Amino acid sequence: MVRTPPDTRASLTGVPFTKMTGSGNDFVVFDGREVALEAVTQPEVIRAICDRHNGIGADGLVVLSPAVPTDVPLDVDADALEALPLPLLLKYFNRDGTLGELCGNATLCSTALAVHGGLAPADQVRLRTDAGLVHARVVEQEPEIDIAPVVEIRPDHSDTVTRAPAHERVGYARVGVPHVVIVLSDPTTLDGVDVGAEGRPLRQAAPNQPDGANVNWVAPLGDGRWAYRTYERGVEDETLACGTGAIAAAILLTTWELAEGPVTLVTRSGRPVTVTLRPGAATTTGRPQWLPSLRGEGRVVFRGILESLPPLR
C-alpha cells in the first residue's frame, strides 16, 4: 500500500530504503510502491536524506516503481502484451534536490535491484528515465544498460573552455546529460587535478549553459585501460564514479582514435566500468551517432528504515 504522508519529516518515519553503490557512486533507493514519489522528492527532503553527516548520505536519490507501458504497438494482441516485461519508472535526483535526466550508475543499480527483487527478468529489464527508455540486463552478475543514441558530440571543445598546458584534448558529448572530457598525458597528472577548484568554473562556463556540464579528466594507464575523475553537477563536487561520464569519455576517445573496442575505464574508487560502442546510422543532418552500453557495479550496501531527518532546508 502506497503511503501518501503530508510534507513533514515525521511523516517519513518508518519508510524503508535501500542504500546502493555503483563503483562508489552511491544512492538511496526507495520503492515507489511503499512511498509516494512526492513525499521523498521534494528538494529539501532529498538534501536531508543525502546529507552525509546528519542523513543517510548519498550522491543522489532514486525512486523505482512499476509503470504502465506506453510504447506498446497498438496492434499487439492481449497475449503478447501479457508477455512483455513491464517497464519500471526510474526517477533520479541529485543530492542538491535537482532532477537528473539520467545517471548511469543509478541506472545500473536500479537494474540490479529490479532483477534481485523480482520486478524484471534478468535478460529483459526496461527502465523509463527522464532521458528516455533504457533497456538493461544482468550479465555474469553485473548489470549492463543500453543508452539512447548519442548524437551531440563535439570532438574539439577546446576553444570554448580555458585549456591548460596539460590538456591534450578537450571534447564534449551529451549522454542524457552534458559532459566535457579532458585528456591528460598520464595518471600522475590526473592524480594532481584539483577536481573541485578546476571543475566548478568549467561546469559553469558560458558555452556549457544553460544546463551546465559534468567535467571529466581521463588519462591512459598504459595497459589499454583509462583512469578518469569527474566533477558532477548537482553534487557540485567530485564523485567516485560517473556512468554517463564514462560513456562520454569512451565516445570521445574512440572518435579521437585513442581507444578502440570495448573501452574499460577505472573509476576513482578503483573499480572498472566497461563501455561498448556500436556505430548507429547517420542522422538526417549527416552527424554520426553512437549506440553505447555500460557495464559495471550495482551493489546493495544495506537496507534500512528511516527514523528521523535533520531540519529541512
Name the CATH superfamily classification of the largest domain: Diaminopimelate Epimerase, Chain A, domain 1
Instruction: Determine and state the CATH class of the largest domain.
Output: Alpha Beta
* CATH architecture group name of the largest domain: Roll
CATH fold assignment of the largest domain:
Diaminopimelate Epimerase, Chain A, domain 1
Radius of gyration: 20 Å
H/E topology pattern: EEHHEHEEHEEEEEEHHEEEHEEEE
The assigned structural class equals: alpha+beta
Q: Which strand-content bin applies to the residues?
A: 25-35%
Domain module tally: 2
Give the CA-CA distance, first to last residue. 29 Å
List the helices and strands and how they pair.
Elements: E1 16-22, E2 25-31, H1 37-40, H2 43-50, E3 60-66, H3 78-83, E4 88-94, E5 99-100, H4 104-116, E6 125-129, E7 132-139, E8 142-146, E9 153-154, E10 169-175, E11 177-183, H5 187-191, H6 195-204, E12 214-220, E13 226-232, E14 237-239, H7 243-255, E15 263-266, E16 272-280, E17 289-295, E18 299-305
Structure write-up:
- Helix content is 19%, strand content 35%.
- The relative contact order is 0.17.
- It is an alpha+beta fold and 313 residues long.
- The chain has an 18-stranded mixed beta sheet that branches.
- It has two domains: 142 residues, Diaminopimelate Epimerase, Chain A, domain 1; 135 residues, Diaminopimelate Epimerase, Chain A, domain 1 (Roll), CATH 3.10.310.
- The model has no long low-confidence stretch (mean pLDDT 89).
- The chain contains seven helices and 18 strands.
